[in-house]
Amino acid sequence: MKSIAVVALALFACVVAQPGGGNANLDRIFNQYAGSDNTLSQAELNRFWLHFDDSGDGSVSKQEFDSSWRQEGFPNPQNAPLFFLELDRVADEVLNSQDFPHIFRLWDENGDGTVSEREFRFNWNAYFD
Predict the structure, then answer these.
(1) pLDDT digits (tens, 9 = 90+) for 7-39
(2) Which residues pair with 60 in a beta bridge?
(3) Cα–Cα distance measured from residue 78 to residue 22, given in angstroms and rounded to the nearest whole number
(4) Neighbours of 102 (CB within 10 A)
(5) How far is Cα 30 from Cα 78, in angstroms, rounded to an integer?
(6) Where is the signal peptide (predicted)?
(7) Which of 1, 8, 22, 75 has the fewest CB atoms inside 10 Å of its own CB, making it the most exposed?
(8) CA distances from 32 to 10, 13, 20, 21, 61 (A)
(9) How many Cα atoms within 13 Å fall on the side-chain side of residue 10?
């Protein structure tokens, strides 16, 4: 019986250690902003990124992004500053309403005006895993 528990624990550790594994926080946050239709409109994706806005000023600084990234347990925290720079499409050292439309257009791959869960996960993994 002990050996089954050890094997189960080892398998769990392997799944969590895999790229894209252990994304319970990502699932929770996606579902929080996507709602019942399981897609993100541009406004919902904007609110998703503002989840990182600790000060509530409508902009996400590099420090806020890095801190929130680590708090949520997202992958590759050592690369959070690079992820921030990739998302900062206007290159003004904050993520805000000027960046969000650019990000939305990149992530809405089929151009239907929403980001599906598949599109979201595909882009999340491409950018951050």
Answers:
(1) 333 333 333 334 444 477 888 889 999 988 999
(2) 95
(3) 17
(4) 13
(5) 22
(6) 1-17
(7) 1
(8) 31, 26, 19, 19, 22
(9) 6
